[in-house]
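2024-03-11 09:14:02 INFO receiving multi-entity request
2024-03-11 09:14:02 INFO entity count = four
2024-03-11 09:14:03 INFO echoing inputs for audit
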Amino acid sequence: MEKRATIKDVAEAAGVGVATVSRVLSGGSASAATRERVLAVAAQLDYRPSALGRNLRQRRTGGMGLLVPDLTDTFYGQLCEGVLACARSAGEPVVIGSTGGDPEQEADLIGMLLEQSVDRLIAVPSGDADTWSPVLRAGMTVVFADRLPLQSSPEDVRAAAVADLMALDGLSAAAPARPLDVPAVVADDRAGIRTAVRYLRGLGHKRIAFLGGPGQEHRVNAFREAVGAPVDEELVVSGTGSRDSAYAAASGLFQSRPDLSAVVAGGNVLGEAAVLAARELDLRVPRDVSLVMYDDVPWAELCAPPLTVIAQPGRDMGYRAAELVLRAGGRRPRSVVLPTELIIRGSCGPHR
Amino acid sequence: MEKRATIKDVAEAAGVGVATVSRVLSGGSASAATRERVLAVAAQLDYRPSALGRNLRQRRTGGMGLLVPDLTDTFYGQLCEGVLACARSAGEPVVIGSTGGDPEQEADLIGMLLEQSVDRLIAVPSGDADTWSPVLRAGMTVVFADRLPLQSSPEDVRAAAVADLMALDGLSAAAPARPLDVPAVVADDRAGIRTAVRYLRGLGHKRIAFLGGPGQEHRVNAFREAVGAPVDEELVVSGTGSRDSAYAAASGLFQSRPDLSAVVAGGNVLGEAAVLAARELDLRVPRDVSLVMYDDVPWAELCAPPLTVIAQPGRDMGYRAAELVLRAGGRRPRSVVLPTELIIRGSCGPHR
DNA sequence: TTGAAAGCGCTAACAG
DNA sequence: CTGTTAGCGCTTTCAA
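2024-03-11 09:21:47 INFO inference complete, emitting structure
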């Protein structure tokens, strides 16, 4: 284990000053002869500039942070793959953290990133606007993916979420301003949910339920909007993020409202729970209950019956978010809304 | 965006030297009075020590690197969650990379980590011993997870793999030495595969196939050993890692050997491919073909029929690996072999 | 075009 | 117990 060559070693071996080496290696001006010599020596010494020195000097770490709720959720796996693909092609390191959907863990992780001087972050947020404002004020460039943080004041949480959606859709709203002025890459949840609800309606379903998770206020609201008033709030339930809680929510829903004939699951973990709960209660899909799941994951096709899904481009979402956070050269990039697609397989049938 | 307080700011505000602040904050000796004052000032200034300065000074980055083949493979998602859980409780950052199972990308990512002075690494290796030796020589503390790198010399790849397994099992072998002297956390593939094969044999199956992926030499060899000589090599096939190639391999297998009655898939992506291919060819599971899949993933239960699996503790594997790489205080930690469990569900039936 | 020199924020000797 | 000081490896003025 011999120690690595430093810029000083290269400078001495090449008979030039360290500044010259630095310039040559970062594409600065230098005479052809000098450049050639430095490059040769550097290669010969197998010199690799240390990110440590550079980072300290520039008071910032290259690369980016990446915060997701759960890596065993296939959708977030896809999202991460997208981020990593972009980062790799840029040669940038990615510091990852899994929040478990818990604002506290999220805050801890943010603290860790701050300590590391990571000043670019892609996050699927769990905390609300109050937890994120300080981060932005600290000078971090953040891009949200998949969803946005909730407005913190308990009062108009709903109003803000709606306003937010409208803003993303390019509609003007007389509602409160968006909670945070941060670019985001999200799927067009509104259209996705609307399409699913219309599809189910077309099949004759009247009592359609929504099975949501934490941080899915957008989708819940989109659902409320899609079914139209009056909304049967008993048909709108949420788990807390874990597989167990998702199962409990699904099971509770099926038992308390045996009259429902269709359910829209807000994510693949929730869809999984719905299938399990239905089976446990001897409800046949789609005979007794129709199911549409958010997220297209490989196993949706293996299910019995294969699941009809609202597909959203997880990988693209990650890639785009990484692009945004990387290209954030001063100018604040605009948010991106990605299309969803209803993929009809076998989990929905006519209402009977 | 105001700049962060530095140790110097704290020192001045507290009327002490920077060294004292450093000591207090890292638990060194200091008088109660001084300690209290420094702590108060630090809190008041919201001081967070910069990892940049510390890292440069210590010529190493804290935290660890994590290299996996594919984050959309649920098993690796589980493994990562384990690593992250351990890292989080230690307050250490994790730099992640997805290799796509490609040795070249792996090498690139290793280079990136070296540049960042990340000197601890947990890896599910894709490259062979030749690509890993330099990494070790560079002074990195590495712990392999899930599998070990292959011996590079084409000749005795198989022998080495076998020797390796035996070494892990604590057996002495007259075969070539283990390729690399690196601690690893792996599942007891040998026992897992053996159990699965015996189970299938007990069901009356004679022609059992193995559907492997890249880097699964251990499992392939365990399979060969479990079925015993003579091995029908046509029944041992491998994909290259992508879902497409896994599907092609599975499909090819079913078509070329319609006489097979059971298949063991070496991982969940391969299992998925097997289910898909079987369905496409109108082979019913388990009527026409029985299937045992490596990895217990949530969706295994949702499959029709629910999949019988060889479960391995992905999360534990990651957690243990992180512990090893963190605790690697000079002493080289011993490898860990985690148990597997055959979980019988509905994808295996009697041979007919 | 080039080199010397000044730090970036921190820790670790070494004195006091 | 505490302060001073010397760098860690690099980039970046500032002169030459």
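2024-03-11 09:21:48 INFO post-check: Chain A touches chain B through 58 residues (CB under 8 Å).
2024-03-11 09:21:48 INFO post-check: Chain A is about 45% helix and 15% strand.
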